[in-house]
Write a structure and sequence with these properties.
Elements: H1 7-23, H2 26-33, H3 41-49, H4 67-81, H5 87-99, E1 108-111, E2 126-130, E3 133-143, E4 151-158, E5 161-168, E6 173-178, E7 184-199, H6 201-236, E8 238-239, E9 242-243, H7 248-276, H8 282-306, H9 319-331, H10 336-353
Parallel strand pairs: 1-4
Antiparallel strand pairs: 2-3, 3-7, 4-5, 5-7, 6-7, 8-9
Helix pairs in contact: 1-4, 4-5, 4-6, 4-7, 5-6, 6-7, 6-8, 6-9, 7-8, 8-9, 8-10
Amino acid sequence: MDFHLGEELAAVRDLARDIFTDQATTDRIREVEASPTGVDEHLWAELAKAGLVDIALPEDRGGAGLGLAGLCVLLEEQGRAVAPVPLWSAGVAALALAEHGVLAEGRTALALEEFAPAEPDAPTCTATLENGSWLLSGTKAVVPSPRGAAAVLVSATSVDGPGLFLVEADGLRWELAETTARGLSAHLHLDRAGARPIGGAEVFRRTLQRATVALSAVQTGVMKGALALAAGYLGERHQFGRPLATFQAVQHQLADCYIDVEAVDVTLWQAITALADDAPDADRAVLVAKWWADQAGLDVVHRTQHVHGGIGVDIDYPAHRYFLWGKEIAGTFGGAAAALADLGAHLAAAEVTS
């Protein structure tokens, strides 16, 4: 199967890379991390002006019609730059809303996670229909970048099973929390909050799959950015009169990283293609991509920080930022072990029914 980017997606990649390279400098990222929102609003505006924020949406909804593939190309470039903008969550939420005829004003936050032992695919947040109105109660954990969002797309369970509901952001109770990657998230406490139903179990399942794949795309970029940073550093740094990159032990470390990056790249695009084609093996492809992004992603950011030596833990140097992003993504929607367990259960169920 050929996963090379077509002309249109390659143009998206090149445009996004130019913007992130120009805007997401180390000094700028450090400044944004200390800001009240943790979001680079100027970069967000530049991406919007270039037509990239809504690139996944259908053309009749103001987008470029490039779907999940276009969003993932953009997200990979974001990961390379570790740029602090809420692209994956806002993009996935916008796709879900657009498919059901909802055009939300402003950015929509995405609330799919809860505290353990709740699983992402079985939300304990409840949705109750009373007198013709839907009311949500429960707590959603670590909602990404909620400040500045006009609405929140929330997963909740009703008597009919899990689904998605849209809640206006004004008046909600938030508990701010800093994430591993220094982003500003918040726990959302809902107490009979009025909501609009967006879709049932199938819509929710597809949105969770897209969110999982979107995060895998960010992780792919993080891995590539970390590897490029390490290779550049080792090529310039000398010890015993020669570049560190010429030492065999270091070469083996980076070779392992390269193999992991290639594997994550392939499994990511298998999942994107399977979802786009509504393929029978889409569930399996998403779980495989998630396992590789979680396990290999964490391995790569560990190795690349390690080969930097002492400067790898210096927060004035960008290597630590790739490590933090990789670690956070690897634990979102459950880690590698959870993905592997889910994959095993899926394969076992498929074997029983075959």
